Amino acid sequence: MASKQVSQNKKLEDEQGQLKNIDNKNYQEEEYEFVAIPPDGGFGWVVAIAAMLCNLVCDGTLFAFGTMKLHLQEHFKCSDMLILMVGSVPCGVYLLVGPIVSGLSNRYGCRPIIIVGSIGAAACMALSTLSPNVWAMMIIYGIFGGVFFGMVYLPSVVMVSFYFDKKRAIANGLVTAGTGIGALSFGPLANFVMGKLGWKTGMLIFACIMLTCIAFGAIMQPLKPQKVPIKREIELQTPVKQKPLTSVSQEATAGTNVPLLSSVDTSTQNNNSAAVPYSNVATVNGTSLSPPNQSPRIRTVSTSSYVSVGGTHHRRGVSNPEDATRPLYKKDALFTGSKTQLHHVSHTSLANSNPYMASATNIPALTNEKQKKDSAAKAFADILSAMTDFSILKNKQLLLICLGNIFSMLGYYLPIMCLVSFATEDLKVDQTSASFLLTVFGLFNTIGRFAGGPIAMIPHLSALCVHNVLLFTAGILTVLAAYAYNLTTCALYAGLCGFAIAPHMSLLPSIICDCVGLDRYTTAFGILFLFRGVTSIIGPPAAGFLKDYTKKYDVAFALGGAMIIVAAFFHFCIPKTKKMFYEKIDSMFKKNDSILAISSLINSIY
């Protein structure tokens, strides 16, 4: 009899030890998660400068087409509409491929995409010198070159957002300066080089300049994921004097088979549970085999543990270190504005208390090896799917923004690509002097991008208000440009329009985030890329068609300005929809009907 009891005790000890090992193993697996912590400085400033130089070369080359146009048109002997299409196609294509490039950047990383884009863009520019006609130039430089330009531009912006959180507005302001510096310097450079050495040599020189982005891209190394311990609080109740294990078996019926012990952690089944009973207790015929007078062990799990809580909303990291380095999985990866410019709804989601990053990752936790292997393919598919989700246009405010951008982009590139030709062909201004009009435009455009944020922070003003007023002003100025009569008036228009049109790029991210919220910001911006890309291709050739038909650019500037004014009116309608929306929510909350208010909120957004 004693021998049998000893055998049962040993069996019970082995089973409890086995359970304890399994339990400890599970907790060790859940002990750490991986996060990429933005340094908000340090090497991040090097990355920001590299991104600025990428933008300088990429946008500077595209914006210099207004000067290149004169030399290319002289060689190809084509109409204004066709030659302007050569310059507008890459500007539109590099926006249209935004969702694809974003997915590739999330899959392979931003650094290799920038390097490949730099090599591809330089190759397209070099090969374009062999174009037998304008159509070949349009395909080589326009379509293929535009794809590679997009592979340089977008990942560089994303990398800055990956390295910065609190200081992101400052860092992106530095990056934005690259666009302005490129616009003010590359125009005169293109005129000088192509005027002295010919357009083919000039394109080869610009191709060599494009190759410098290989070095800039190589600098942008991804953040290394850091292992962060999951905070846990283990609470053990003070046990009463514990009986030896033999006393437990003595209470069991002799000859009874003790089943294999099972331990179930139910904390993963309830996102709202903070304290979950947990015990490694055997039962015999429904009778607990725990030591008498001892309460089960209670485990209290803090909500910082995403495994224990079971949801993704409370996580700070992910279980797969590779996913922690994928920048596009951050909800605010494409957000370049300042948090202080956001409405309280979006501002709350951004300015959370997370010490690691401003936005939680969107990806689900990986649970097995197969999912880990599939995560690389999903990294591309997830972002591409998110950035092409047109259901977000059910949001009336974003729909107004997209419709407004259809019209605004019809006139946005007009001063960049047509102002130099307008001055030289219509006003008979010297070509060298006319090329400096792009310098004036680029200088004041840079100032406007920096000034937009501080102006929007003036009391009783907002980002939307400043954006709308200045966009409307840019439209009026573009209409009035049709009456310019010398170099001075053209320069005056270039400076004022360059400043007024700048917030259309610098403040719009804050406006979009305010309208759709941070959770759907990436989707909204992906859809906006598509709208902008299509009309960017159409705008300059349409102006060229009017020039070919009327023999002057004045009608093109008048209609282009009218399109910008129409775009401003679409944006002016946004506050009315927002006011009606928030009044409806406030009235429901005053009635203490929280459920109805939240339901209305969801219906209004989606």
From TrEMBL:
The chain crosses the membrane at residues 43-66, 81-101, 113-132, 138-164, 171-190, 202-223, 398-422, 434-452, 464-485, 491-512, 524-543, 555-574. It comes from the Eukaryota. Keywords: Membrane, Transmembrane, Transmembrane helix. InterPro entries: MFS, MFS_trans_sf, Proton-linked_MCT. GO terms for molecular function: monocarboxylic acid transmembrane transporter activity. It holds the Pfam family MFS_1. The keyword Transmembrane applies. Residues 304-324 are annotated as: Disordered. PANTHER family: GH22266P (PTHR11360:SF286), MONOCARBOXYLATE TRANSPORTER (PTHR11360). This is Uncharacterized protein. It comes from Rotaria sordida. The lineage of its organism: Eukaryota, Metazoa, Spiralia, Gnathifera, Rotifera.
